[in-house]
Write a structure and sequence with these properties.
The protein has two domains: 33-133, no CATH class; 162-242. The protein has twelve helices and two strands; from the N terminus they run ββαααααααααααα. The chain has helices spanning 16-28, 32-47, 57-63, 67-79, 83-99, 103-117, 126-139, 143-159, 163-179, 183-194, 203-220, 229-239, and strands at 2-6, 9-13. It has a two-stranded antiparallel sheet with strand order 1-2. A hairpin with a 2-residue loop joins strand 1 (2-6) and strand 2 (9-13). The protein is elongated. The protein starts with a strand and ends with a helix.
């Protein structure tokens, strides 16, 4: 066993040979699956309550020591077809990938889980996994892939009645259209989607409103009137940096 210091905590890691030996014995005893289910439940509790759009740096820092555990649990849920758990875990890791610039890892997992779940999952947050897969692709300059996954997210969100996710996905399509220089489409998406978010309350709708305010400011030179005053102030400050 190896002791590893992290901040004020001491973590203990098994040597790989010992870990493999124990896994083999657990599997032989028929106890490995049950243990892995408990492991996944623990990881789900670890990421419970994380709001992807909040960019909570403190929460991300607290997750850092357990990233390998979370990756391992995510791999297990993916391989065993546990769609809902995989969606919850992958969304719990989004902010960490974002803060650390790990776009390739994030995009790979988000896309894999989105593809796995798109075959008929009823997970309400599934479209959000698709949106964030698109965001990662967008930040890597792969606009075509981003558009494909954004549109799939819109379709799934509409099919499941997840209006906030529709709003968020379409706001990202508007940002993509602006980035490509298609100002007419960007404006059309902005005007259509802003009708839904005049009184935004959910985190997804708030971040979508912020996206739309950004697109509008770039297309028209002003922040939309029906954007909340706090967001108007936030985006006026941000616009000055572009």
């Amino acid at each position: 066993m190896v002791a590893v210091k992290h901040d004020e905590q001491t973590r203990f890691h098994l040597l790989e040979t010992v870990r493999q030996y124990l896994l083999a014995n657990l599997e032989q005893a028929g106890e490995l699956t049950a243990l892995r289910e408990r492991y996944v439940d623990w990881c789900l509790r670890l990421v419970a309550g994380i709001v992807v759009e909040s960019n909570d740096a403190d929460r991300v820092a607290r997750l850092q020591p357990d990233l390998d555990n979370l990756r391992s649990a995510l791999r297990w849920t993916f391989e065993s077809g546990q769609v809902d758990a995989a969606v919850r875990l992958v969304l719990g890791l989004v902010t960490s990938w974002w803060f650390h610039g790990s776009f390739s890892e994030g995009r790979s997992w988000l896309t894999a889980v989105f593809d796995l779940a798109s075959g008929g999952s009823t997970a309400r947050d599934l479209p959000l996994a698709g949106v964030w897969a698109g965001v990662m692709a967008f930040n890597q300059g792969d606009y075509s892939a981003a558009e494909v996954v954004y549109r799939r997210a819109v379709d799934i969100a509409q099919a499941t009645g997840n209006a906030p996710a529709v709003t968020l996905a379409e706001s990202r399509l508007g940002r993509l259209a602006y980035q490509r220089g298609d100002l007419a489409q960007a404006k059309e998406l902005q005007e259509r989607t802003l009708q839904r978010v005049a009184n935004a309350e959910s985190p997804m709708e708030i971040i979508a409103t912020a996206d739309l305010a950004f697109t509008s400011s770039r297309v028209t030179g002003r922040v939309p009137r029906n954007t909340s005053e706090s967001l108007r102030k936030r985006w006026r400050r941000r616009i000055r940096h572009f």
